[in-house]
Structures are given as structure tokens and as C-alpha cells.
Amino acid sequence: MTKLNDILSPFTAWKHVVREPVTIKDPLNREAADRYRGFHKNDISECIGCGTCESICQNAAIDLVPVDGVETKDGDSGLRPRVDYGRCCWCGLCVDVCTTNSLSLSNEYTWVDEDPDNFRFVPGAENKSWDNREKGYKKPGNGYELYSPVRESMEELEPEQRDQSFIEIVQGYSKEQAEKEADRCVECGICVATCPAHMGIPEYIKAIRNDDLNEGLRVLYDTNPLPEICGRICTHKCETVCSVGHHGDPLSIRWLKRYIADQNPAEEYKKILNTETLQPTGKKVAIIGSGPSGLSAAHYLALMGYQCTIYEKLPAAGGMMRFGIPEYRLPYDQLDKDINYILSLGVEIKYNMTIGKDITLEELNKQYDAVFSGTGLHMGRSTRVPGTDHPEVYQAVDLLRDIVLGNEVPVKEKIVVIGGGNVAMDITRSLARLQKQKFGKVDMLTTSLESEDIMPADREEVIEAREENAVIDPGWGPVEIETEGDKVKGLHVVKCLSVFDENRRFAPKFDEEQKKFFPADMVVESIGQGMDLSYLSEEFKEQLKMDPRGRILVNDDFQTSVDWLFAGGDMIQGPDVIHGIANGHKAAMGIDKYLSDK
Amino acid sequence: MGTIVTKILYALLTLFIVTNYGLILSGVVRKIGARVGRRHGIRFYQPYIDLIKNYTFRTRITHGIMYYIGPVFRLTGGIGLLLFLPVIYGSPVFDNFSFAGDLTFVLYFQFFGVLGMALGAGESGHPYSALGVSRGLAQTTAMELPLTLGVLALAVQYHTLNIHEIVAAQQGSILHWTLFTNPLAAIAMMLSFLAMMGRSPFDVVLAPQEIPIGPPTEYHSALLGVLQLNRAIFPAAKLILFMNLLFGGATNWGELVIKTFFIYMWSVFVGIAYPRFRVDQSVRWYFGIPLLIGVAAILVVKYF
Amino acid sequence: MSKKLLKWNEDRTLFPEKNSEGKIDVDYDSHKFMKIWHGPQHPGITGNMSLELTLLGDEVMDCETHVGYLHRGFEKLMERRKYIQCFPIVCRVAVPEPDFNEYCFASAMEELAGIEVPEAAEWLRTLVLEMSRLQSFLAWIGGQAGSLGQGIIGQWTIYLRDLILDRFEELTGGRIYHMYMLPGGVRGLLPDGFRERMTQNLDDIDKFMKDVKKVMFDNYVFKKRTVGMGVIDPAWINPFGITGPNARAAGVAKDVRKDNPYLKYPELDFEPVVGKDSDIYTRADVRRRDLLMTVDLIRQIMAKIPDKGDIRAKTPNVLHWKVPAGETYSRAECTRGEYGYYMVSDGTEYPRRINVRGPSYTHAVALLEKMIVNANIADVAGLMVSLHTYPPEIER
Amino acid sequence: MGKEYIEKRTVISPEGNPIEVDPLKDYFCDAAPKSCKSASGIIEKFANWARSESLWVLGFGTGCGAIEMRPLMTPRFDAYRFGIQWRPTPRQASVFVISGYLSVKTLKRVVRSYEQMQNPKFVVALGSCTINGGMYWDSYNTINRLDHYMPVDVYIAGCMPRPEALLAGFDKLKHIIREGRGEGANKYAENFDWYKGNQKKIIKDWDMPDYNW
Amino acid sequence: MQTIIENLQKHFQVVSYHQQRENLGFLIASKEVAVGLITHLRDYEGFAHLVLLTAVDWIEDEHFQLTYLLHHPEKKVDLGVRVMISRENAEMYSIHHLWEQARTYQRELREMFGINFPGSPDVDKPFILEGWEEIPPYRRDFDTKEYSEKTYFPRPGRETHDPAEYMKKKLYPNE
């Protein structure tokens, strides 16, 4: 019976003959699934050309090529990915790893061509029929990340602990933390162009990952002889353009630099950096000022074999780094670590030597083959509102210098600071500490012309200042400092609507109706610094070419119009440490060129 | 003299109509098969295009003279078979060269095709062709046995070897069909018909999965076109033969189309449902039940 | 040993004696033998490999398998790719069911790197593996029927497979190559409406499989061709390294999902499908029942799978993921048997060596060469398909 | 077995002199392919129409793309309705679908199969692998670009291209044929030495005749 | 697992044993004892299933590591036997008499790594490659990319730019 069944049952297949075929009527226009990984799309305005897609592509299908209409600028390489469909496998890893989320895949999948050379295109730049498709593969959410978008948190002192003393706040990364943070780097190198010194950032981060800190230090010293300092107080322009920061926290490049410097003991620097013996050239260079640019120039000149002598007005080296930046941000022993290494290369330093008073520039020129000046900006600017000439109105730079020198600093119970830059924050927080020590409480108020979102101070500085109980009230323009005899009563302000005009020129607009009064016993001005060129003799000044705003003009080698005089640092470009370092480095190379040619 | 010329012209007309019918039928049947697989299948006129395309190939290679003759042989078999069949009963135009004893002739022609393939495919030198041909010959021989027994039973039953007369004997009522007057012979012949049409489970000769695709492996271009043409004519001729022998023939084209279509569908009906036998299995199978039925058919007509 | 096997052996006693190597002494000079190449361009060969057959009439006297037509040097290529870059290429090792490669690769790597995969991702992986089994089985059943000349089954099952591929497309974004299970997790949650459509497809498959059973398995000719054919002796299982349905059809309940449970299989209710007779028919039937079991498993998974949750563990940056030095072997049960990845890491960003153990490796070379001897040439295709071999995983 | 059966063998002629016979020359033609002139005008147009509507694909799964052939043949996509059919032997096929990467070992067989196909013949190349190496661009065993070894009519991008894309590719091929541009076979014949040179450069084990149609 | 190892140590010198996970362990055996050890494992300990046999090229240490991965079908545990053999004239005793499938593995190793297994059937026959003239491709000193570029004509017209280099060229070419 089963046999008969075996003969008959196959015929049941015929019941399907009357059913409608399941064939897709029009397969050529069938849309793929929503998540389908089809052809590439790229939002070319979002894309920064970081090349992470290229580096993850196992097929070498992606090239970075220049594209018309996309300019190379800070944070944007001006390159865009070009995909070779003779290589691509549509795995979508390029989409997953895309730092800006600009790359995606549409769900279009038909591309037929006779010419095999046509299968290459720059998504976004060349118009394709699928450019406007909504559907397609995008980077999934739900904890799906190919690299961590979250910064490794940094150990810091609690506000209660830090507001009494000048102990360093930031603790620095441990090995695990540093390696984890370094691991987030995608090695695109976008940051290098933005860093004024063009440091080899991806390379030293890679050195951390490979746990080869000696190599890391070598990379650092290629372009930056003050890594301990920069690792703490650099304005880290690099982090603002970090490609990882487009969707997530940027890498804390600064802390990683600090980690490398911290982990290498000072006594081994010479061995690591292979600077135990240097080939002297017999030529001598004088350097005015021991700030970042001076030290940087001295370092690279020393490496090139020049005998350098630094003339410093103050009794300690470091310039603004020592006298402008409070100790809680940059401890002196770390400052000394960097400086001492540079001095150990044979750089001589003469303290308490004021140019123009103890020795003139012309004399330096006679004694030395070239002179580098990095005298910086040490004169505080004033708002020049009524009342600023009162003795209880101070300049932030002066106060900061006094704190470092150990001079007595006038601290009152109620202090108002005018200014929104990092120096304003520094003085606010320094004075807050002194208030705490003296009165046991903090009553600081800092106001600035700029509103909160455009305040030039670093974000974390503002946050930390608030944590330390200082009041930050930005967006007010000072009108008058009310004084009464030898006492200051307070500061009158009006609302500031905008700081810059449409041409990005400084032209503040005020709303006179909105007024405020900040009562204070003491006012500190911190709205910027100017340079002090008093050490130059008048006839010398006439030889020097200046720009209309009173800055010394230099060429690409930081050579002034007087060929033996080079200048750099804040007075030329700035104001920040890393520019100074970069200037010093370039000036050193300029001096080398100048002296080799001579 | 005039009559023989008109006869030839009429035969050519028949050939033309049957060829077209065969081509369309093969297309339609493939479409029906595709429907079981829940798809649309080829366009019904696709066989025409395939044919044209094969004739328009620009190059062809040769394996020797028999390689050419093989397909021609086969085509001759197909056309020959057709020409000795009365296609439309009673029509002077489509009666062809039917004569007394044409039944034996037809049986021979029916084998002719395989022999033609054997010659040509053997010359092509491809091992698959050789395998396919040996399978084909073995299976055809096995299948011929019940078929011949059935035909003999018919000859005994109708006391003639003339197809025309066999058809004539079946006219009048559906119950006069051989199918009902001699069901055993009809069954034996219809089972042989399955193998004749080269469909599952008896398609081991072509078997693309085993010996791609058997005898015609090496055939291409116009020669394949010839084979294809034959694949339209030969089955159509066989259908007409079976229609004439078992289903009362046809008195007009409409009847012919309906009857042959259903006869064709019988092989398709079975073919879709089963996989294929190995050649030894199919030979054994034909030596089993169909052979017994064939013998029984002869015995029945002889003694009852 | 079953009676059927004995019968088969009796049937074959007319043919030349086998020598100690299990082959027949072939004297080519006798001109009795014919040599033919089955493949690589041959519709009866699964994938792209070839058999060099020596025939005596229709009977195969000697067989030598030739592989390497699809050799791409995966194991070499992976040595010069970072771990994440290996992820898109591993699935290409076996086209019909790429997901087992992805899973084995990911799990071996996760084990070496010490990464815990989130719950939701584990479930999704289980789902994808079972879907992959399902579609592979469906494609195979059509192939088995087709190899014996019954095309209609293939028409149906490939259509059913297309339904599963649609679901794959929806879930993973890929049709054939899914590239879904990357090290650390998966690449997406279930899309909206997925469950309903999946359930609908499973019902369709259930229904169609009933027809398939009637048309293909309860079939006189099919039984005639397969019962007692190509018997794998249970004693061969270990010497030939036979795994999967081929072993289970011989009555050995080898199933990695039960033996070395992975993913969420311990939470699913199933029993390995076992057969008795170990011939082509039994192997086909075991696979058919395995297919139905897979349908049931997918239903179970759909009932338990979470809609939300993390899909990927926190891993180091994949661009420079260094996997700690060590070596491991991870395996999974695919439709053909035990799939495994042997991974050796030397602590760098690049794998030191990855070796892929595909089940076809053992089935398609040594075993096939042994089994094909004495078969009829017409059975070669059916026999080969019944072992469910796939050439790319032999040569990789 | 080794290679004895393709090496030259010595036979004794009826006169008793030993002659060396090259078995490869025994079985195959020894003339390079010739470029064929197309028919003129309307006849060629008609022929091209027939060629385009009757694409017989050689069933040779050379790479992973073979997996998408099954869906094409089956109900979902049903390429038969567009006149696309599969043939098991190269002699009868007119379209060669190179389904993805070609290893050197396969290329040898592909070249042979291609040469056995009759003029006019068309080649459809699937996926990245045939365009520029695809995933296996740095593999020691797969070729990078197919057009160095045989003329290609249509490329379809994808890895793998979906059946729909394949149908679009066939559609394009039909257009090309109808426009009379599907002259790959003639191109092959005209640049025969170049193609052969390229093939021989990478197929180290060239144990087949130069001409085998 | 532990008991098996302890058992094993009674009969053989097991150099080191490393438990990778609960059901997988690796041990190192010397070339001379390896085949005896594997036979013992198969016949007395019940490791009846040879999962795989493969090699790792430790080119720095100038040796090949052969891994015989054995599976115990009843206890469901795996044991990897690692054998270090010299890279110079690499040769190992064959195990084709223990497992039929081993001859395939050995053929592959012979071809891809150049490790010889004297006595293994067909071991010198080409397996995967055809007409290969270079050093065995799975050896570490074979550079597949270089070989591919020189052999297979990569399509011309590709060029790429490093973002950092390109930005330097564009933004600060002189520094």
C-alpha cells in the first residue's frame, strides 16, 4: 500500500499549477530592504577627509582624493573618499567607523557598465541617482561603536580639596587609562596641521599604545621641547579639530602628552633623546627672555650645536609659564624638569638681566652671532573706564607675578575680575584660593564682555572656577569703577549684546538699559596684555619694521628687518605657549640657516 | 505525375504546420511545467528565437563527416515518421503518404532518430556523448518492447498494418477508441510513450546533472538548430502516431490539437512528479510491468 | 549494519574486487576503462570542483577529487589583515551559509580577547545562525532532488530560501553575505515588523515542506534511487572525521549544539535528529527533519529574543585591536557538520594564523573518493550532493 | 596519473619508423581563431535581435556569484521569461557569466570553456573581483582584472550583485547585442596574441593546446 | 581534563600544558613522541575524532608548530597537541594510518607550508595549487601582496593621499 502511495503522492505537485506564480513582476525596480548595504553616499559638507574609512578598508577600495570646491583648512583635509567598486565588498565598516557619520550606504544596488574603469567615484561629489535615497545602511545605535566615543575620565582633586592650596588639580593618567585613551585615536592626523608646532600627535599616541614611552618622548621632542608644560597648560587646538570629537569626546591629546613626559624620568632624558654628546659649531646665540619661545629656540639651537645664552629679567626661568600660570595648573617642579633638561644641553642662563639696562641689544649683537628675542606680553591692558587708575584696581599679570615671586598680594574680601580669558580665570582662581586661606570663604565675581558661549577661556577652566565657588557672570561691559576715596565700591556694567561686528572686528554693542552693579573691595583687570618694547633703544626701533598695530614684522624664518635679530613668541604670534614653542623652533632653524649662510 | 507533385506539396504543408505546432507546443508545455514551480517560465514563442539564434551563429567546428550526418539522420527520422502518418483523418490534404503496412515503417523510423544520434555523437568523441548514446540505445530497446507488443496487439485486433485503417476503425464513438477497446495495449504503449518523450523518470539519456547533456553535448550552432527542429517535429509526429493508434485520430486540426496536447501532458504530468531512473533501473522497469501488460494485451486480443 | 547495506553490497559483488586501499586496481592499458572529468564546469557538481573518474561502462572504478578551483588563500590574506579587517572576508569562505564563519571567527576572537557579548547580541546571533541553517537546508534539498532529475523541488525550495534571504536582508543589510556578527556583538536589532513577517515565512515553509515530503520523499523513483545507496558505515565516522547530518544519519548523535553548547542553545528545547540507515535517503530525511527542527527553533528564538538592548560589547578601538597572545578553537554546528576556527594570536594587531575547519574538507575528499568507487556514474551527482559538500571551504 | 597522457608519445608507423605524436595536436585544431564578418544590414539586425532574446548562459559557477544563479533560475526572479536559459555545455552557450573571482586554476578552465563557445559569444562579469580584484586584490591565487584575459561585455557591480542587478546586467547586454556591439569574440580573435600572452603569463602549468575550439 | 593529563604524564613527557577553557587544552609534545602520544590518546583515552591538523609558521623562532586537535566524542573535550618542528627541511611523521582524513591534511600542509610527511599517500601530488613555482604560500616569508601586484596587473589610476601629509603640503609647505 505504501508503494502505491509512493507512486501517487508525487502527483500532488500538480496542485500548484493553478496557483499564481510568486515571481516578482518588475525585478528591475525592486527596492532593497531599509538597511540594505548598497552604494555609498557621503555628506560632503560633513566629511572632514580624515581617512579613517580608508584605513579600515581591508580591500584598499578607498582613496582620498582632492575634490573641487572643498578647501583644505583646519580640521578638514580637503580630501574626500573615492570608492573603487572594483574592490569594495559592501561590508559597511567604513560607515561604522566614519568619525563624522557623513558616510552611509544607500539601498540602491544596480550598477551595470561596459567600461570597468567607470566603477570609481567620489560619493557626494559626483552626482548619482541614489544620492537622495533616505533608506540604506547607517551606523547602528544601541551601544554599537567601533571605537570609544567617550573620553577616559581624568582624576582631579575635588573642589573642596583644591580651593585652599595651589596643589596641582589634575592628577594625570595611569598606564591603563592612558592606553585606553590612546586606543581611541583613529590616527587620521587631522590634528597635526592645527597644532601650531605641528607635533607628531598620532605617532606619540601610537607610542603610548605600544607602551613605548621612550619613542613617544622622542616624537615629542622633535617639535616640542616643553612637553611637561604643554602637557598641562597647552590650549590644545588639536583637540578642537580631533575627528573623534565630531561624535563623541575628542581625544585628550594634551593629557596623553603629559603622560609620556611624566612617565619618563628626567635623568634619563639625555639617554632617551640621544643628546648626551652634541657637535658644537662654535657659534653663539643670545636669547632674550626665557619664556616658551626663548627656551624652544635655545633647545633647538643647542641641538644644532650653538652656544646659547638666555638673558632673563626675572630671577627665575619660564617667563609667563612661571609668572603667569598658577601653580595649581603647572607645578614648578614640572616646569623645572623641562627647563633643566634644556639647560643641561649646555644652554646658559643669566637671571636678573634686563636688556637695555644691564646690557644693550647692540652689545649683544657684538658678543653673539645672532640674537633671538622672545620677550612676550607682560604689560596688562586696561579697560580705561573711569576709575581704573585707582590703586585698588590691579592688573592680573602683575598680581600673578607677585604670587609667584612671593611678594605680598593684596587680597580683599570682595573681588571683581574683568575679563573672560584664561588669565582672568587664573587670577580668579588664584585669588579665590588666597581668599579661602585668608578669610575662609570665597567671594569672587568675574565678568566679561563676551557672553558665556564665546568666552575665550577654556570650558573646563570656567567650570572648575565655578566649582571653586567663584561667580562667573559673563556678557557685561564695564562702564565705571565706583570709588570712594582709597576704597573701591564696585563696578558698574551694562549688558553687552555683541562683541564683534559682521566683519569679525572688535566693535562691542551695548544695551544701555540693562545695568548692573557689582559691589567690590578690589577690582582686577584681565582683558589682555601688551608688549613692552622699552628695552629697544629709540634709534633701534626706527630700524625695525613694525606693522600698524605696533608689532614687529618678521619673515617666515622669524627674522626681523634687522638681519641678526630674530623674534618670536607672544609678541609676534599668540598668546599661548604652543605658538611660542613653534616660533622658537622655526626661529632656531632660521638662525641656523642665517648663520650657515653667513 | 500531377498527383505525386500535389502530394509532395501537401506533405510539405503538413510538415510546416506540424513543425510550428511542435515548436509552440514545446513552448507552452514548458510554461505549464514552470507554473508547477510557481513561475511564469519562458515565453511561448521562445523556441523560435532559440532556433533562429542557433542558425545565426557565425562559427562551427566539425568532428568529421558523421558528425554532420547525425543530426540530419535524426531529422530524417522525425520527418520520415511524420510523412507516413495520416495527420488528419479523412482529409486528402493532410493524409500524407499513408499506405498499407506503414505501421512497421513508423516503428522503424521511431528508432531511426536514436541511431542517428549514435552515429553523430559517437563521432564527436565526447565521453558524455558516448555514455548518453549507450544509455539511449539501451533504454530505447527496452522501451520498444512493450511498444511493439502493443502495436502488434493493435495489428492483431484490427487485422491491419495500415494506420489509416486503424484510425478508421476507431471512428464513430469515443468508445471505439483503442483506449477502450484494448486498454492493455493502450497502457503498455502509453508507458512506452513516457520514455519516448525523454522526460523524467526516463530522461537519463540527456540528464544534465550527470552527463551534460548526453548525446548532443558537442552539438552547437546550426547543427544544434537541426536537432532542435527535430525536437519539435519528432515529438509532434509521435503524438500524432499515438493519437491515431489509441485515441481515434483527428478529423480536424482542432481535435488534433486537443488530443495531442493531452497526450503530451501525460508525459509532462509524470515527468514533473518523478526524478529520473538510472538506465539499468529503467531497462529493468520496462522489462517488468509494461512488458507483462504488452504480453497480456497480445494474449487478450488473440484469445478473447 | 542494516540489511539494506548488505543488499547493496551483494548487488555490487559482480564488480571487481577492491584492494586494501578500498580502490579497484585499474589497468589502463587494458583499454577497458574510460577516463572522464566531472567538473569543474559541470552542472552536477556542487560548486566548482572536479572529479577525475575512471569508468568501466557506467560504473566508477576509481575517483580522484581535484579541488583548488576556488582557492583564494584566505588564511594567508587574514594574516596580513587586522582582526576587524578579517571580519568582512571570513564570510566568503562558505557562500551558502556565511554566518557560521562569522560566528566562529568572532567567538574565537572574543575568547582570546576576553570579551563578553551582550545578551541581546547573543540571541540575535543564535537567530541568524538558525536562519542560515534554514536557508542552506532549503537550497540543499532542491539540489538533492535536482541531482536526481527532479527540478520542481528546487523551484520551490529556492523560492522559500529567497524568503529567508529577504529576512536576512532586512535584519542584516546583506542578502548573501551578511557581515552581521562582528567581533564583540552584532550590527543591528530586529527591525519593526520582523517577527510577523518571519512567522509568516515559517508557516509558508512548514506548508511547503509538507508538499516536498509528499513529492520528493514519498516518491517511488526517489526511493528507488536513494534507498540503500551510498551507505556510510558508522565505523567510518571517526577515521574520516564525519560530522553533522552525515554522521547523524548513521545513528551517531553528533551535534555541536548539544555536545559543546554555545550561544543560547542551552535555553532552547531540541533533540538532535538521528537516522538509522545511513544511505542517501536517510541523509536526506535527516536533513529534512533537521530543517523542520530549525523552523521550530526559530519560533522558539522569536519568542525569547529581546527587542531592545546593547548589541555590541565595549571593545578596544578596532583600528588597532591587539588580541592577547594565545590560541583557541571555536566551533559551531552548521548544516554540513562541525565548523571550526582555529585561531593563533601572537599579541599583535594581526592574527598569527587562522585555520578554517570546514566539514566539507573531510567529506568531499577522502570520504567521497571512497564512496564513489563502485557507484554508477548516474549516481555520482546524487551521492556528492547527499554528502552536502561545498568546495570553497575545502580549499578556502 | 600525472601528466603522461598529455606528453608526447612515440608510435611506430606502418613502415616501422618511430614518429613522435603530440597528443594535444591529435585532438584539436591548430589554427588561431579568425575574426568573423557580420552579415549586412537588416539580416544582422534580425540576427542580433534573436541573439539578444535568446541568451544561453553557460552553467559554470566560477566563483561565489554562482549562488545567485539559482534564485535567477527559480520562481522569485525567473530569468527564463526574459529569454535567459542555462546550458550545461559551452558548445551551446552564448553567454559566459564569470561569477566573481577567478583563481589561476579556474582561469585555465574558463579560458578553455570560453574558447569552446561559438562566435558570437558574450561575457558578463559579476562583482568587484572581476573589475579590480575585489576582496582578493592581494591574493596570490586570484586574478585582478578579467579584461586582460578575455573580452568582457558587461560588468555588474556588487559583492555579490543581487539577482535584480544581474537581470539589469542582462538587460544591458541585450541592448549591447542589439546595437551590434557584442563583438567580444572578434575582439578576442583580433587580439589573440595579447590575450594568450597574458593568460600564459599567469597560467604556469599550460598543459593545454593553444587553440581548442 | 585534568585527569587525562595526569594519566598522560605517567606515560609520556608532556612539556607543558595550557588549559585554554574548560573543554579545550593544549600541550606540547616533542616530534619523536608525538605520534605515539596521539595514538595513545586515540586508542586508550578515547580521543577518536581528529578535528584538524594544521601548522603555524613561527618564522622568528625558525620552527613550524603543528597542531593536532583531537576531540573526545564522549567527554566532549578537545585536546590540542602542539609539535614544534624545525623550519629547515621540515618533516614530520605521518598519521595517515590513524585517520583516513589525515592524508588530505598532510597533502595540504605539504603544499602550503612545505612540510613533508614521508609515507603519506599522494603527499607530493598537487592538491590546491597548480603550477606553483614560488615558495609555499602559507609560509610567513611569502609576501602575497607583492606577488599579486607583480603578477596580476592591478587596474591603474588609483592614487591616494595621506590627510596629514596633504594638509602639510597645502597649509604649511615650508615648515
TrEMBL record, chain A:
Gene3D superfamilies: 3.30.70.20, Alpha-helical ferredoxin (1.10.1060.10), FAD/NAD(P)-binding domain (3.50.50.60). It holds the Pfam family Fer4_7. GO terms for molecular function: iron-sulfur cluster binding; metal ion binding; oxidoreductase activity. The keyword Cytoplasm does not apply. InterPro entries: 4Fe4S_Fe-S-bd (IPR017896), 4Fe4S_Fe_S_CS (IPR017900), DPD_II (IPR028261), FAD/NAD-bd_sf (IPR036188), FAD/NAD-binding_dom (IPR023753), Helical_ferredxn (IPR009051). Residues 38-67, 79-108, 176-207 form the 4Fe-4S ferredoxin-type domain. Keywords: Iron, Iron-sulfur, Metal-binding. This is Oxidoreductase. It comes from Prolixibacter bellariivorans.
From TrEMBL, chain B:
The chain crosses the membrane at residues 6-29, 65-85, 105-122, 173-194, 256-274, 286-303. It comes from the Bacteria. Signal peptide: none annotated. It holds the Pfam family NADHdh. It is found in: Membrane. InterPro entries: ComplexI_Subunit1, NADH_UbQ_OxRdtase_su1/FPO. It is a multi-pass membrane protein. One of its GO terms (cellular component) is plasma membrane. Keywords: Membrane, Transmembrane, Transmembrane helix. This is NADH dehydrogenase. It comes from Prolixibacter bellariivorans.
Automatic annotation (TrEMBL), chain D:
InterPro entries: NADH_UbQ_OxRdtase-like_20kDa, NADH_UQ_OxRdtase_20Kd_su. This is NADH:ubiquinone oxidoreductase-like 20kDa subunit domain-containing protein. It comes from the Bacteria. Keywords: 4Fe-4S, Iron, Iron-sulfur, Metal-binding, NAD, Quinone. Belongs to the complex I 20 kDa subunit family. It comes from Prolixibacter bellariivorans. One of its GO terms (biological process) is aerobic respiration. Pfam families: Oxidored_q6. Residues 63-172 form the NADH:ubiquinone oxidoreductase-like 20kDa subunit domain. One of its GO terms (molecular function) is quinone binding.
Automatic annotation (TrEMBL), chain E:
Residues 156-168 have a biased composition (Basic and acidic residues). Residues 150-175 are annotated as: Disordered. Residues 31-147 form the NADH:ubiquinone oxidoreductase 30kDa subunit domain. SUPFAM superfamilies: Nqo5-like. It comes from the Bacteria. InterPro entries: NADH_quin_OxRdtase_su_C/D-like, NADH_UbQ_OxRdtase_30kDa_su. One of its GO terms (molecular function) is NADH dehydrogenase (ubiquinone) activity. Belongs to the complex I 30 kDa subunit family. This is NADH:ubiquinone oxidoreductase 30kDa subunit domain-containing protein. It comes from Prolixibacter bellariivorans.
